[in-house]
Prior knowledge:
By secondary structure, this protein is α/β, with parallel strands linked by helices. It has helices at 53-56, 84-98, 112-122, 147-157, 180-197, 219-222, 234-243, 257-261; strands spanning 3-6, 9-13, 19-23, 32-36, 39-43, 60-61, 68-69, 73-78, 102-107, 134-137, 161-167, 200-206, 226-230, 245-253, 265-269. The chain contains 8 helices and 15 strands.
Amino acid sequence: METTNKTSEVITNSIDNNYTKAKSGEDEPTYIIIKQGEYSVATNLLSVKAQTKAEQIKDIVNAELLPLARNQLNLLSAKGGDYKTFVALRSAMHFTAKEDTKVLCIFTEDTIQQVANRIHSLAAYEPAFDDAKLNVISIDEFAPDNVDEIIKLMDKTKEEVGLIILDPLLAFYEDDENDNTRAKKFMNKLAKSGRKNNTTLLILHHSAKGVNNSRGASAFTDACRVVYHRSTSDTTLAKDKADGTATFELYKDNIGVEYLTGKSEFNVQVINGTKHEKL
Length: 279
């Protein structure tokens, strides 16, 4: 077996022409990547230094408002008229103040005027909002209506856009919403594109009638790293109504949001509690 030294890496050729690549150096982890055709298999992972809490939280977008898994799929579920779009739009505004990249919101049920009205009502809660970094495709414009069009858009905007919001999920899904096989394929395409393009996705979805679960195939939530459901507690709903807030519960947490933030419920101010204006 032949070993070749190249600056800070070691490449070992195996008899079947696959190779093992080990990073080396004082400040670099020494884990091994084994190339198997188009796949890469990692081993020796104990040599990789564990992240601190401060380092892990960098993998979260909007940690102070509604934490999202960076460059992965996130889902926000609630019944119609229950402030999903308000919360998503405020998340987009918050992102523009915290991140270097832009946001693209695709609102297939709202006009530009309706979106602008909501931005005005939310601006007081996001004083650092950068209007120039928020991009919106509305019902007034031609919007992509299937997953392949979304992926093309992600590929084109990958250098500029760090967060894409899709509202609602079923506007982009063309198959039987209860078919898990097709739903899984749809979501996996989005997830793969998000990772490839360093793009975080927040998908808005309707809850099932009569229950606090997302409607349709379970694959929609299975594919997401973080899922929020609107709180249905009578006490919480009464407080939300009085305060002009919307509370969402952490339903699925694959990245340690609760561990990193100490919270499993997130209360987002969406309207002036004294006016109860719903635009």
